[in-house]
Here is the input.
Amino acid sequence: MTTAHVTCPLCEATCGLEVTFDGDTVTEVRGDAEDVFSHGFICPKGASLGALHHDPDRLRTPLIKRNGEFVEASWDEAFAEIDARLRPVLEKHGRDAVAVYAGNPSVHNLAVFLYGRALYKAIGTKNFYTAGTVDQIPKHFSCGYMFGDPVSIPVPDLDRTRFLLMLGANPLVSNGSLMTAPDVRGRLRGIRERGGRVVVVDPRRTRTAELADEHYPIRPGADALLLFALVHVLCAQRRVALGRLAEHVVGVDEVRELAKPFTPEAVAPRTGIPAYDIRRLAGELADAESAAVYGRIGTTTQSFGTLTSWLVDVLNVLTGNLDREGGAMFPLAAAGQANSTRNRRKPFSTGRWRSRVRDLPEVIGEIPVATLADEINTPGEGQVRALLTVCGNPCLSAPNAGRLAEALRQLDFMVSLDIYLNETSRHADVILPGPSPLERPHYPVGLYQFTVHNVANWTPPARPTDLPQDWQTLLRLTGIVTGQGPNADIAALDAFVAGEVAKGAGLDVSVAGERTGPERLVDLLLRAGPYDLTLADLEASPHGVDLGPLRPRMPDILNTARGKIELAPEAITGDVPRLAAELDTDVSPLVLIGRRQLSSNNSWMHNLEPLVRGTNRCTLHVHPEDANRIGLAHGGMATVRSRAGKIEVPVEITSQIRPGVISIPHGWGHHAEGTRTAVATAHAGANSNVLADEYLLDELSGTAVLNGIPIDVEPASG
Ligand SMILES: Nc1nc2c(c(=O)[nH]1)N[C@H]1C(S)=C(S)[C@@H](COP(=O)(O)OP(=O)(O)OC[C@H]3O[C@@H](n4cnc5c(=O)[nH]c(N)nc54)[C@H](O)[C@@H]3O)O[C@H]1N2
Ligand SMILES: Nc1nc2c(c(=O)[nH]1)N[C@H]1C(S)=C(S)[C@@H](COP(=O)(O)OP(=O)(O)OC[C@H]3O[C@@H](n4cnc5c(=O)[nH]c(N)nc54)[C@H](O)[C@@H]3O)O[C@H]1N2
Ligand code: SF4
Ligand SMILES: [Mo]
Here is the structure.
């Protein structure tokens, strides 16, 4: 028996786990009680790391499609095939003809996080897509314009705050997002034990709402109205108190003006929250000794994603809680901290290029995935003819998934870096797998930028593997797209990447000694970081290094042109009239929202028996009143229709959802032909993104509306 201590790479919480092996077999995974951050916390997904490692369906060799069937291939054959078929597309049709889609695990996979960029830059396409445009891009947009850097996203100081106002987030299930915090339940209880309060705004009475002091079941998409009304009350009652932020803020008067029409009475019908409650909430927020407003995916993947994301921080500023202990603070990561004075960049801007077909602006280098199908379907110069997916399953995660799947069939060539043959990778011509989480090193560079407590924890590979590491695969692809052929000198390319990282950090690359790959990059990033750490220091601390509670970072953090917090940037406030128009618009009688589930990880962990056993979870939640009116029976089937498509799902009647709203979780629908995920197929469920409309976007950021989709429901016939 041996044990390994690993940082779980499955979600944003970064829990420390202790994995026990009998030889090469995982016999147990439990929370590492000595982990400096998670103190033994674990969730069902983390506990299934062994099942993932041993999953017989997980790919272990490259696959090449020959005459419509996948056959196993050697790595050399796979790269030769890619070279032979991708290079002609680049040469004949140019770089924009090759699109990239990078999915969520790109952030959770160290090699992809560090080396993906080199490949994407080498491809040089404007058609760069990620899961961000079905996720958090509105927050990058708002913070980019307010603070000057799209990664300067404040996180609630969970362990010290006395008041938490949380909108569109269910961290008891999601384990937190843009808020790296193992054991959110314990931390929220801590707030209450300190005499503080937790307020949740969510159309559903979620587990998080159950634990809270107050729950407001808001109408989907109305958060910006609610937040504006809170701003209105603070201004009207002269309760704006900037505190020590005062000298750093511009735009307060503009915000006060903009908030005028959004009285509690005006927004009450549309939000479904009584004016009286809104006033009381504003008072509680202003009175709190310290407070943090936090919004997550229910506030970003909706019509007013950017305005909502902006107003969250407007409230943090107006109450003097930004960058203050117990408020909303900016972490200081040990490695890869992009937003400090050492790394001054150009102030944030968007729309540096636009999408060809729908003229949608680029945000942080990305085009909305909602328009990927348009770019594939529409002939003309710059048409997308080849696609590389990296750790992504857009056929289940992107809007109008039905149309996207059809579009993928039209591509000349497609490559998927994926560990499964699933709904998306089945469309590929070549699939390149990678090592399991237990066979690669890990360090959550990206997630530590959003942590509620500064920590650093390095994970060496727990087990050896015959597979190439993902960074080697990415560099071989980089060789191909730069015309060096399928057998480029990986060591030379790696040295180049390391040289660039060292240069950016003002270091000589030789300080990292003999190390190569991600080890060398992380060592360089740590050395360049603010804590004077090296990788050797972390190697000597298998349970992590505690770098202390969050500390104020103002004004160092500010990177706007004026060096101030821009409370009312035009790029954002230009969308306020669209919001004001909402006050007079009729609402759809029935809208669809999503919901996450403890034992799911978006679309891709449904092939693990321990996570799918039990009752079918892909059900439609509907309030008893709506069920009665529509004639839906508990346990019966419903047909759900939107402009984009139609699915059938089993009905679960529950008063935990507000009337006028139905909920279906995303990431299901594993019935596609030609996949190799036996367990998932046996628990297929339905794909809710067949219903999501690719033309409904948060207008500023291009992020898809996945919450608040107008819908028709009827009992399924037969
Ligand atoms: N309706 C609706 N849709 C949503 C959402 C919603 O709330 N509602 N949420 C959105 C959000 S927030 C997100 S982030 C997206 C997620 O969207 P995606 O990132 O497109 O989808 P995932 O389900 O995360 O799929 C991850 C893929 O990566 C593969 N994979 C996992 N680990 C590895 C690895 O280590 N290496 C490689 N090579 N591959 C790996 C998996 O097999 C899977 O194919 O979905 C979005 N879609
Ligand atoms: N177990 C599990 N954990 C996960 C994931 C998973 O699939 N499963 N996915 C991971 C990913 S990629 C992400 S991005 C994070 C997301 O992390 P969270 O944002 O915490 O995720 P959700 O549980 O989807 O919570 C969103 C909530 O918003 C509510 N909501 C919907 N529409 C609205 C609205 O208009 N207004 C308001 N106020 N609320 C609304 C929904 O009812 C839901 O409860 O979770 C991550 N963690
Ligand atoms: S909460 Fe997230 S990081 Fe922690 S064990 Fe579960 S999946 Fe892993
Ligand atoms: Mo996400």
